[in-house]
Amino acid sequence: MATFLICHGAWSAGWAWKKVRPLLRAAGHEVFTPTYTGLGERAHQSSRAITLDTHVADVLGVIDCEDLRDLVLVGHSYGGMVATGVADRAGERIAKLVYLDAFVPANGQSLFDLLPAPARAQRQQAVPGQGDSWLLPPNPSPPDTSPEDLAWITPRRRWQPIGTFTQPISLRNAGPPPPRTYVYCTRIAPDDTFGQFAHRFRADPAWRVYEIDASHSPNVTAPEALVRVLDQVAK
């Protein structure tokens, strides 16, 4: 049995893993899906002061208060930024680090630094004049998201403080990282934001790379396939 700790994506929250939690538990695992400050059920805490560091601290607080150890830490999409910071600060608690169609920053990089130029320009242009210029509106859902799932997720997605995208990550631990896995979703959007990571890590023996026939949020659109991969990674 493994203990999974999920770092969710942007504009999302723990609720987005509703389909995955029972499947992981049925496979014999424990799973925690905390929500970051300012999103989901914590949307009332949103403020312009929220940064990437805020969300890293959120997850570190769960590790500390729940006394979690030997974790499989999963970062989805933006959650890869968060998971990287968490693993840097609590590496002794992490058994495996999994990036699910996620950003993998080096020291000093922000999420905006890792976006392809057209996507970065589009995101930056979305800010002025909206949300008092400090909130980013959600990306559109993948086109294969069912009408039922759109009805579930759309009203629950929240605008996200831009500081979480602009703050560079600061890595402090020079020691070796936990064993790392990249899970690449092959039903890509027009801008293949995450292919850069999958292609790079396939050639790196320090990484395991899996592919999943799903769009960017398999926790919503392909939970069974995702859990099969996560179960395999945990073994």
Mean pLDDT rating: 94
* Biggest sheet: strand arrangement: 2-1-3-4-7-8
Helix count, per DSSP?
A: 10
Q: What portion of the residues fall into strands of 2 or more residues?
A: 15-25%
Structural class category = alpha/beta
> Roughly what percent helix?
25-40%
- CATH fold type: Rossmann fold
Q: Please give the CATH class.
A: Alpha Beta
Number of domains: 1
N-to-C CA distance: 9 Å
SSE order, one letter for each helix or strand: EHEHEHEHHEHEHEHEHH
Number of strands: 8
Unreliable stretches:
none
Tertiary shape = globular
CATH homologous superfamily caption: Alpha/Beta hydrolase fold, catalytic domain
Descriptive notes:
α2 crosses α3. The protein has a single domain (about 5-235), classed as Rossmann fold, CATH 3.40.50.1820. With about 240 residues, it is α/β, with parallel strands linked by helices. The strands form two sheets. It has a six-stranded parallel β-sheet, with helices on both faces. The protein has ten helices and eight strands. The model has no long low-confidence stretch (mean pLDDT about 95). About 35% of the residues lie in helices and about 15% in strands. The protein starts with a strand and ends with a helix. It has helices at about 20-25, 50-65, 80-90, 110-115, 115-125, 145-155, 165, 195-200, 220, 225-235; strands at about 5, 30, 70-75, 95-100, 135, 160, 180-185, 205-210.
